[in-house]
Amino acid sequence: MFNPDKFNWRIFDPSEQIPSYVSIWLLDSTSLTQKLKEKYEDFEVNVISQKESMPYKCENQLLNSPENIEIIVREVELLGNQKPVVNARSLIPINEDTIDILKIGSRPLGEILFDDPKIERGHLEVGSFQNSWARRSTFNIGKTNLLVTEIFLESLYA
Q: What's the rounded mean pLDDT across residues 78-86?
C-alpha cells in the first residue's frame, strides 16, 4: 500500500508548523477508530491484505524484535462516506500474545487496542511525505510490540 521509508519520521515538535485541520487528527491520543465513528455514521474497515510479510527496516527498528520473527502485516482502508479517509498498516508478530488479535477479520484494530487496559501505547511519531501526513506508534501486549501506522488522506479533511 505504501512505503513508510519514504516518510520523514520524528517525535512531534510543538514548534513545527502543522496545519490545524491536520493536527487535530495527527496528534490526538485517543482511538482513531472512535473518532472516525463519531464523524462518519457509515464508518467501516476494508481489509486490503493481512499476510505474513517482511517489515521495512524503519518498522523493524521500532518493533525492537529479532529479524527472523514471523510478522503479519495488515493493511486496511478506513472508510467514511464510502471513501478511504485513512490508510493503516499494522505489524503484528505471531505469538501467544497476539493470537486473538490475528482473528479480528474486518473489525477495527483500534477497538481492541484502546479497549483493553492491559495494552499500553508507546510514543507517537509523526511523518510527512510530500503533502501527506502520517503517525505511528507501538502498542505493547504482554511481551510483544505491535506497530500501527496511519496515513491521513485528503478526503478526511473535506
A: 97
